[in-house]
């Protein structure tokens, strides 16, 4: 009988293999437990192969590819016990335009059941969102809310 | 359940009353560096009962009270109130709307309220943990976690997995 | 007589106090050696005060403010022994538009004597540069150089 | 002295001849995630003599040789050649142009050349260290250094300062 950890690990792994392919538009990835008896104690290995490249340890990927693979894994952990809303604080900073589109695409897919609140500086992410909240410090050190429209930001 | 409204006063950079009304879907929070975006995430973590000052980037919990700026004096209390739409009754309370309030005074006294009535911290966290909104949950994903989850040090990653289990 | 370390520290400090103010458009900052005898062994404390805010440890600043303060310190270390060219790999990722303008402004000022090569995904940084080099993988896994114009990227 | 040209073949993702000609001022290097931008920085570090595979994100130095893709076989050698304009004679060599070449073969054999003549690694590094281009210099600033230099762990920061001294 599987322990609760092993079951959690197996759920995370299923989500991860699927979410990775969706975010990378192809390729494949997997996480393996280095100690099958106790996957969490033994450490975890993450292998990833973006489309057209060779399978390698996630540590060999570029900065943005690593960030996207990490987002896939973090999101997979989230999906084990999804909450009604999810906050994403500047996960898009190292991503290029195509990867931002994939990322926003997956959020859209889940946004029917989950409210997403995304802190960002990226115009493309803003364009793909349903609405914007602007925060300013008209007075230094004091935060205030302001309405913002996308055209203002361009 | 759905996030409906967030009201902040005296917490971190929110020296003036700060109110956000939420809708379904994807909302982007934008503004210059240091304007308070991550502070909104901290406010949500705090009102839902986190006991770790470190998790909300404070050295000690008292530091979340607005401590002044070049134009303003420090304040004496931090208060955050979050309101949920609970028409689907996914929160274990028989109300269409459920609000949670947390206050911290300079004296160190803390107060927790559910729908305006004083309660214990545990009443808040029990309610939230069931919905995946515990302080160890994955409902906030931040850029710093990218480093941790890819860290070659297995212990760092294990911590993150422990939280999901 | 000052040791070489103490002299290096003192140079870095002078640069830092100046570069910080230029990048933050005001405010002030300082680095202090926790062990005056041996500034590098004893550890270093970095205090910063963006315009209008209060003096605090750099660890209390926002993500973007910390990145900009770090850039100020890294650049100050660079200025102790400047080289003919300097490579900046995606330092601008967490910066807002105003801070990107300050950052590019300081690079322009030094670019009379120093060639800068800046890896970036940020359109504003690209607009402030003198020219663009595009790298693509027309064939997966194989890098190639391509000409890029700013209008293409918009 | 000024960076004039960079030629790469067989190093990391540069399976085909890759040539960059440089001008004064600020040049932006752009392209999608994983296309090879940081690899250009790695190539410059490598040709100027770094002995640390870790510094250029490789597990062992042999890993910098192009190791194949879905459409290509691995290659047998990595070669990078950098050419400098030395009309101001800031490099200690009496030539208007100075080029440095580094090669690594699968066998593990390394070659270093200055203006086409074989030399030792030390001849390259001595030349470069004087101009602030040593492997411990600050001529490459990367996003990961932001974390290190602000690290509350004094030892991490001390390492960075040691390099500047
Ligand atoms: N107790 C406090 N009192 C007053 N100001 C505070 C307090 N705690 C934090 N702050 C201020 O809040 C600001 C940080 O806000 P925050 O981290 O939300 O910025 P941000 O919008 O996320 O910026 P970035 O885009 O750089 O990530 C800092 O300037 C800090 O000085
Ligand atoms: N020896 C090698 N042989 C083939 N490909 C390699 C080799 N070493 C690294 N690569 C590839 O180079 C790519 C990384 O390139 P690089 O880090 O330069 O990307 P980048 O343009 O900086 O991306 P980002 O915008 O995400 O930072 C990876 O996909 C990796 O697989
Ligand atoms: Mg932030
Ligand atoms: Mg890169």
Care to give the gist of this entry?
The complex is a heterotetramer, with two copies of chain A (about 150 residues) and two copies of chain B (about 160 residues). Chain A is of the alpha+beta class.
Present the secondary structure layout.
The complex is a heterotetramer, with 2 copies of chain A (154 residues) and 2 copies of chain B (165 residues).
Chain A: H1 4-24, E1 28-33, E2 44-49, E3 56-57, H2 63-80, E4 85-89, H3 97-110, E5 115-119, H4 123-128, E6 131-139, E7 142-146, H5 150-153
Parallel strand pairs in A: 4-5
Antiparallel strand pairs in A: 1-2, 2-3, 6-7
Helix pairs in contact in A: 1-2, 1-3
Chain B: E1 2-9, E2 18-21, E3 26-30, H1 37-47, E4 77-85, E5 97-105, E6 110-114, E7 117-119, H2 121-129, E8 140-142, H3 143-150, H4 154-164
Antiparallel strand pairs in B: 1-2, 1-4, 4-5, 5-6, 6-7
Write up this protein:
The complex is a heterotetramer, with two copies of chain A (154 residues) and two copies of chain B (165 residues). Chain A is an alpha+beta fold. Chain A is built from five helices and seven strands, in the order αβββαβαβαββα. Chain A has helices spanning 4-24, 63-80, 97-110, 123-128, 150-153; strands at residues 28-33, 44-49, 56-57, 85-89, 115-119, 131-139, 142-146. Chain A has a three-stranded antiparallel beta sheet, with helices on one face. Chain A has a two-stranded parallel ribbon with strand order 4-5. In chain A, strands 6-7 form a two-stranded antiparallel sheet. In chain A, helix 1 (4-24) packs across helix 2 and helix 1 crosses helix 3 (97-110). Chain B has 165 residues and is an alpha+beta fold. Chain B has helices spanning 37-47, 121-129, 143-150, 154-164, and strands spanning 2-9, 18-21, 26-30, 77-85, 97-105, 110-114, 117-119, 140-142. Chain B has a six-stranded antiparallel beta sheet with strand order 2-1-4-5-6-7. In chain B, strand 1 (2-9) and strand 2 form a beta hairpin. Chains A and B meet through helix 1, helix 2, strand 4, helix 3 and strand 5 of A and strand 2, strand 3, helix 1, strand 8 and helix 3 of B. Strand 4 of chain A pairs parallel with strand 8 of chain B, so a sheet runs across the interface. One adenosine-5'-triphosphate sits between chains B (12-13, 31, 33-39, 63-67) and C (53, 60-65).
